[in-house]
Every structure is written in structure tokens, then in C-alpha cells.
Write a structure and sequence with these properties.
The chain has 16 helices and 4 strands. The protein is mostly helical. It has a 4-stranded mixed beta sheet with strand order 2-1-3-4. Helix 7 runs antiparallel to helix 14 (347-357) and helix 12 (278-305) packs antiparallel against helix 14 (347-357).
Length: 397
């Protein structure tokens, strides 16, 4: 088993390189959770500030309906301040961020108020402006609640019970155990990050393994050893795959340990409770194994074809872009999508990870994702070995 000798040599060199140790061990296990903690803490603070921030709301047509305007007057609790404006200045004011949102009444609002008719109200805001979008939602909710109150008052004036205006009283009771908003946010972000780590973990190793040896002129001396080229290819592939797999598994561990170590910085992730079963963790680890092998085969093929490390990096740019886009698509897709999507490289494994985080276990989806990744891994390894056997490719400088 000469490939084991090659593997031991390559992996030992990986362990000696501080940059590779950081990329494979420290970054997925420590740095990524800390980054997530910072992102979550900042997002939580921003959300809290946006709720207490006083929104400047332009009003159009309120002067024609003084009774309605008085009933809609915002309180300090509503964190809104109304400013009179005209319809021509509203949208430009919102675009210029002079107003956060606007309430526009129709021209016949006064007549509708006199006849106790429904008054159609427009809430305008800028979708591209986060403050304006949040303010628009806040204003819409404010108007709905005020509308219910006005309806109840009219029923009382007519001698009817207020309960006629509210036939159903809805109460929200979150079910604990499957996690809260933090787990939901993680289920969107982390599959993308885990897939990237499972592939990128072997990037530096693959780049240095063949392209780097070409550049240093040490590949020729390796080729004259008694070890066959097939064994050399296997050993180098095993080293790249091992680095990618370790990186992927440690990124999974880096995702899980904040749930079991009670630190304030990770409270946003664990609020609502979350308990990952062994089957969930195993299903996530299962898809990382063939995914790492597939990534290792692709990376090693590129490193073999390239003349030097610089050319390999040029090739790796578009490859990593494709990997990123495919895994990023999982953020926008529902976890319980068609099983056919499981066969899409990168996307299928990312969705398995997303399902596991949301406590969705679909054996068929997991099987197809893992199986297709194995097939892609075999093809990638075969291609890498084939390139390694070609003298015209291997000795390009």
C-alpha cells in the first residue's frame, strides 16, 4: 500500500503548515462560531433598536377627516410621529429618507367617514430601505389594531356587544424543543457554510500538492521513486480528502458546541431550546463524507492541470463561485422540497443539513443526496487519477 506512505507524507506536511492548520482546525471550530455570535448579537441589537426607534410617518388627507385622524393619533408606545404632507411630496420624501413611511387617504375620505363607510388607506414605504420597510410594517399593524378599536366603538354606539367585532381571539404559543428564531436563522446560513468548509478545507492542500510541487520542481523527483503514479494519485487524493473531511466535521462540531456551552454570546442561537438527536447529527455527518471526497477530486484535478499555483488559483475562482452559488441556493429553498433536488451537487447536501437543523428527517432525500455525492466523488477521483497519469499534463511547467 504505497499510497499510504504518500498520504502520510502529504498529511504530515499539512500539519506542519500554520496556515493550513488554521484553515482546517481553528477556523471552523472556533472562528466561525465566534463570527456567528457577533452577527447574531448585532442583528438582535439592530432589531431591538428598530422596534423602539420613532418612525416619521407622513400623512396625506388627514385634515379632511378630523374624527378619524384623532382616533389614529399615535401614542408614545407606538413609536411613531405623524407629519402632515401632500401626495406629490410623499414618495420623494420617502426616497430622500425624510419620511420613513406614509399614510395616504383617498380624496373622498370625508364623505366615507360621514356615511360610516370603509376608508381605503394606502401605506407607502421604500422596500429597498430597511428602516422604511420595518416602519411600513409597523404602520400597517398599527392601522389594523386601530381599525378594530374603531369598529368596536361603533358597535357600542349602536347598542351591540364589542365581541361582535372580534369573533376570534388568537393567541400564539410557541412550541419549545425545536429551537427558536436563532435555529431558523442558522438553518439558512450554516448549510452554506458547512458545504463551503467541506470543499474549501482541502483547497490549500490540493493547491500545494501538485501545482505547488510543479512550481518548486520537486514533482519530478517524486515521479522517479518506485511508487506508481496511480499510488501517488491515491495518496495525494487521500490527503486532500482527509483535510476537507476534517474541516467539514469540525465545522459541524463548531456549529453544535454553542448549544451545549451556555454562553451569553450564543443565547440568540439557543433561545427556544434545541436538542439535536444522534440521528440528526449522523445525517449531517453522512453527507459531509462524500461531499469532501467530491471536492477533493475536483480540487486535485485542477491542481494537476495547472502549471503552477497561480494558474491553479485562477481556475479555482470560477469553481468556487459555482460551489458558493449552488450551496447558497439552499438559503432560499424550502427544506421539504422535491427529492429530485437532492441529486444536485452541493445543493442537495446543503438542503440535508438544513432539514436536520429544522428537525426534518427524510431518509429518501438523505439517501439520494449522499448517494449522488458518492457518484460525483467517484467521477471526480477518476478524473483526477486520469489527469495524473498523463505525462503531458503532469509535467506542464
Amino acid at each position: 500500500m504505497s499510497w499510504k506512505v504518500v498520504f502520510a507524507k502529504e498529511f504530515t506536511e499539512v500539519m506542519r503548515d500554520k496556515r493550513m492548520r488554521f484553515q482546517i482546525f481553528i477556523s471552523p471550530l472556533i472562528v466561525t462560531p465566534l463570527i456567528l455570535a457577533g452577527i447574531g448579537t448585532m442583528a438582535k441589537r439592530e432589531a431591538k433598536e428598530s422596534q423602539v426607534r420613532t418612525a416619521i410617518v407622513a400623512t396625506v388627507g388627514f385634515e379632511s377627516v378630523p374624527k378619524l385622524a384623532a382616533s389614529l393619533e399615535a401614542t408614545k408606545k407606538d413609536a411613531m410621529r405623524f407629519v402632515s404632507s401632500d401626495e406629490f411630496s410623499v414618495e420623494s420624501g420617502i426616497r430622500a429618507r425624510k419620511f420613513d413611511a406614509a399614510i395616504v387617504l383617498p380624496s373622498d375620505a370625508a364623505e366615507r367617514e360621514q356615511n360610516d363607510q370603509t376608508i381605503p388607506v394606502q401605506v407607502r414605504f421604500d422596500v429597498a430601505n430597511e428602516d422604511s420597510r420595518v416602519s411600513g410594517m409597523k404602520v400597517s399593524e398599527f392601522l389594523r389594531k386601530r381599525s378594530e378599536n374603531i369598529g368596536a366603538e361603533r358597535l357600542m354606539e349602536a347598542g351591540f356587544s364589542q365581541q361582535l367585532a372580534k369573533p376570534i381571539d388568537v393567541g400564539e404559543v410557541p412550541v419549545k424543543g425545536n429551537g427558536g428564531k436563532g435555529v431558523l436563522m442558522m438553518s439558512m446560513m450554516l448549510p452554506y457554510m458547512l458545504v463551503l468548509y467541506a470543499v474549501v478545507g482541502g483547497l490549500f492542500v490540493a493547491n500545494d500538492s501538485v501545482a505547488g510541487e510543479k512550481e518548486r520542481g520537486t514533482l519530478e523527483s517524486l515521479l522517479v521513486t518506485p511508487i506508481s503514479r496511480e499510488e501517488l494519485a491515491r495518496g495525494k487524493f487521500a490527503a486532500v480528502a482527509a483535510a476537507a473531511l476534517v474541516s467539514g466535521i469540525l465545522s459541524l462540531a463548531g456549529m453544535l458546541w454553542p448549544f451545549y456551552v451556555k454562553l451569553g454570546a450564543f443565547s440568540w442561537m439557543t433561545e427556544g431550546g434545541a436538542a439535536f438527536t444522534g440521528f440528526q447529527i449522523a445525517s449531517m455527518a453522512l453527507v459531509l463524507v462524500p461531499l469532501s471526497a467530491m471536492g477533493a477530486g475536483i480540487l486535485l484535478t485542477i491542481s494537476t492541470i495547472a502549471r503552477n499555483q497561480k494558474e491553479a488559483q485562477t481556475w479555482l475562482g470560477p469553481v468556487m463561485m459555482v460551489v458558493s452559488v449552488l450551496s447558497m441556493m439552499s438559503m432560499m429553498m424550502r427544506p421539504n422540497t422535491s427529492v429530485l433536488v437532492a441529486a444536485v451537487p452541493m445543493l442537495g447536501p446543503a438542503l440535508v443539513l438544513k432539514q436536520a437543523l429544522q428537525s426534518i428527517i427524510n431518509p429518501a432525500f438523505i439517501g439520494i443526496a449522499a448517494g449522488s455525492s458518492v457518484v460525483y466523488a467517484i467521477l471526480a477521483v477518476w478524473l483526477a487519477a486520469r489527469m495524473f497519469m498523463k505525462e503531458s499534463v503532469l509535467l506542464r511547467t
